Predict the 3D structure of the following.
Amino acid sequence: MTYEITDPAALAARFPDGFRWGSATAAYQVEGAADEGGRGPSIWDTFSRTPGRVLNGDTGDVACDHYHRWESDIALMRELGLDSYRLSLAWPRIQPDGSGAVNREGVDFYRRLLTGLREAGIEPLVTLYHWDLPQPLEDAGGWPSRETALRYADYAAICARELGDLIGTWTTFNEPWCTAYLGYASGHHAPGRTEPAAALAAVHHLNLAHGLGARAIRAELGEDTPISVTLNVHAVRPSDPGDPADVEATRRIDGLGNRLFTGPMLEGAYPQDVLEDTAPITDWSFVLDGDVETAHVRLDALGINYYTPMIARALAPGEVGGSGGHGEGAASPWVGVEGVGFDEPEGEYTRMGWYVEPATLTALIADLSSRYPEVPLVVTENGAAYEDVVVDEGGERRVHDVGRTAYYSGHIGAVADAIDAGADVRGYFAWSLLDNFEWAFGYDRRFGIVHVDFPTQERTVKDSGRWYSEVVGAHRASRP
Ligand code: GCO
């Protein structure tokens, strides 16, 4: 395999003034200190400690120990020259039971972390919810229950009051698709339930919580407070655009995967065709009067997480299709959809089994910016897992991750192509700063631009991190 890697200065020159460059993490994936600082249990503690749920029995108990190493991790970001950092707050650290008392130690941890970032000149982009629901709320029904959305609104208000002076843009949710369908339909993620009707109720309560949370933050901090949400918009297309069955399969996946979220959040209505598709599973009676209006708030940015395309195909009877990288788990996440598979074309794949196709990111951005021209876009996650080897070169540790570097080069170029075509893209965040707890795959899949040796917690900047740092540095240097 030969990989193409663009010259950092040439690539940087394609980006406008003020474009933000960062890396991303999420609380449960990096913090560790699961039982410290007054933190309560989350559904991911319970799930990861349940045998058979996570590869190799890995848990987030220690993860990257970022809870204790945040200062040196900020220094590392500074060394890389990154100007932004996307992180999430752990709800069970701030409100251990998911309702009621605030945990001062948890709030203080985030105040120190956010202050430290600002002092280092790094702008935090904060997500309120990246999958770590307090366990007591799951015990009371979880996201399929409306109560959880109401508790989330309280939590958002607490965060606004306690941390409002340190946060610029608030991201309500990361990938609610995963929470709803991997958590409650396929069971691949916590809490590991396989109940299709519950998954659709979860979709609605996440949409509702997004609106309630955004409104709670603006009630505390002012109507002009910037709000965003991050979606893993599925870049789905038909295997054969001339085959009506493949086109129909694409409509179904796009409906469940994208439009059930973009509909209420950006357009103020659920897509009628998807309500009809899912009628055999649920009558949607959990959508109460006024809910979709509540979910529809002004968005100051839309975050998109992109890794790989999905190429949908209607299967012949008896044929088995690919999963498209999202089919893991006891059941399918695509509730009510049968006989659809995902093509796995010849070409480059990452260690997640995800097909590498940068041009699809350009197309995805172009599509979203033509549908929602008034909403600026931010690529809040993009990156790749590859097998990494640490080598010793005259006493210096190095990771020559050429595959990952090429992935970044291709995809950052794809973002530049979208900007050239007129899209309003404001920033790019590499997933991830650190190798970390990759959910059901534990520590077996490494996404970092910085290598973590988990037994010692030693950090080593990979070649991809060095290359990315050069892009960011060149961009800054070209615009004094
Ligand atoms: C995601 C998550 C990340 C994952 C990453 C790689 O949003 O899916 O934000 O937590 O680690 O996507 O799978």
About this structure: The mean pLDDT is 97. The radius of gyration is 21 Å. The CA atoms of residues 68 and 149 lie 31 Å apart. Residues 8-478 form a domain with the TIM Barrel fold (CATH 3.20.20.80).
